[in-house]
Design a protein that fits this description.
The protein is α/β, with parallel strands linked by helices and 400 residues long. It has 13 helices and 17 strands. It starts with 14 loop residues before the first helix and ends in a 13-residue tail after the last helix.
Length: 400
């Protein structure tokens, strides 16, 4: 059984508790963004008193979340040196699970969202109990490979309709899942606190904490895989909507689309842009004989002009979708996760051209090109940690 964290307090919220939680959050995020950093600098950056910063830093140190850096900082080489603090990467990890259509990604991440270990589990069956049991067992095996480091919790991300409050995947049509109790299944098998969310919202939080969107006042994330969905955040708050259904754009009509959707219409966003559609078109035109979109990317890299055409045209259509969402939401930053945009500059150029020159600079590819699904899972639980570092996802072992 992996080293686990004590469950968070279930005390009812109060204004004082909310203020303390907010102060703890802003201080730990300052360490994340600026560390190694002096406490006096944290006080200046956050507007909190030096005494408060010192108190919270002491509590974070006691819990193993931060440590004093080895080398003191001097101001101009005179005066008493400042002992900077930084995140402590030596004691804790978090687990990340991302459930995709063909496979599940399982990973361990450190407190900076960096992937330490990762496994991909192909689905021989999409029966939810089997998929989640395999994921939990693989996660336990990864944790056994980092002895001496405790697990603060597990984040699970997936496409489709995900309800974080109940910890369930309410509906994932491509997997055939409905009302799957993900939190319950993973927690029962690992003994760890588990948090569940949609992968678009998870990646907004990952970008906000660790990626290119740090400091942006509003962020839109557009995820284009087998599932096509979106997430939107303003001032660090992700919009969930009633019953956590915000971001469901699969059936948004796309101008110029020709693919027939299961709903009976033509040109729905997911039907037109999904990786299944890309792979089918590649097979029809003799580029590949499989269903892995990376085969199309590799063919393009080898100089296949048809593969290049398929990828750039898809990115151009993603750009039209991004432009439509920009019209509606007007975010400061748009982050796109799409296989062509991740791997090819010409695809990014095609996307930005479709968005238009006035807004092209607002559109950037994912910050996690080599590990986006692992980061999606881990970001679910890391967002909880940075929002409430003294209470969630649980106190580190041995701390009251």
């Amino acid at each position: 059984m992996p080293t686990t964290a004590a469950p968070p307090s279930l005390s009812p919220p109060s204004p004082v508790l909310d203020r303390r939680r907010a102060s703890a959050s802003v201080i730990l995020r300052s360490v994340l963004e600026h560390g190694p950093v002096a406490r006096s600098t944290i006080s200046r950056l956050t507007g909190l008193s030096p005494a408060s910063v010192t108190d919270y830093c002491a509590r974070f140190t006691e819990r193993g979340l931060i440590r004093e850096a080895a080398a003191p900082l001097r101001s101009g080489g005179v005066g008493r040196p400042h002992l900077p603090v930084d995140l402590d990467h030596s004691r804790f990890v978090v687990g990340g699970v991302h459930v995709a259509v063909p496979y599940t990604t399982v990973a361990l991440l450190d407190l900076r969202g960096r992937v330490l270990a990762e496994r991909r589990l192909r689905h021989d069956s999409t029966e939810p109990g089997l998929v989640l049991a395999n994921a939990a067992d693989a996660l336990t095996e990864l944790l056994a490979g980092v002895p001496g480091r405790g697990a603060l919790g597990v984040g699970v991300a997936a496409g489709g309709w995900v309800d974080p409050d109940s910890g369930t995947i309410v509906e994932h049509p491509l997997l055939g899942w409905r009302d799957v109790a993900v939190r319950e299944a993973i927690a029962a098998r690992t003994g760890l606190p588990v948090h569940v969310d949609g992968h678009g919202r998870a990646l907004v939080n990952g970008e906000r904490l660790f990626g290119r969107a740090r400091g942006s006042r509003s962020v839109l994330h557009l995820f284009v895989g087998n599932v096509v969905d979106a997430a939107f955040a303003t001032h660090d708050q992700v919009h969930y909507g009633p019953r956590s259904q915000a971001g469901a754009i699969a059936h948004l009509p796309l101008t110029g689309g020709s693919q027939r959707c299961d709903c009976g219409r033509t040109g729905c966003l997911q039907a037109e842009l999904s990786e299944r559609t890309l792979s089918r078109r590649a097979r029809e035109r003799g580029v590949t004989d499989g269903s892995n979109p990376m085969d199309v990317v590799l063919a393009a890299a080898a100089g296949d002009p048809v593969a290049v055409e398929l990828l750039t045209e898809r990115s151009r259509m993603v750009g039209r979708a991004a432009g439509l969402l920009l019209d509606v939401l007007n975010p400061e930053t748009v982050v796109v996760t799409e296989v062509g945009v991740i791997h090819r500059e010409d695809c990014l150029d095609a996307l930005r051209e479709a968005v238009g020159p006035e807004r092209a600079s607002a559109v950037v590819p994912t910050s996690f090109a080599d590990s986006v699904l692992a980061v999606a899972g881990g970001s679910v639980v890391l967002d909880v940690l940075y929002r409430d570092p003294l209470g969630s996802p649980g106190s580190p072992p041995g701390v009251n």
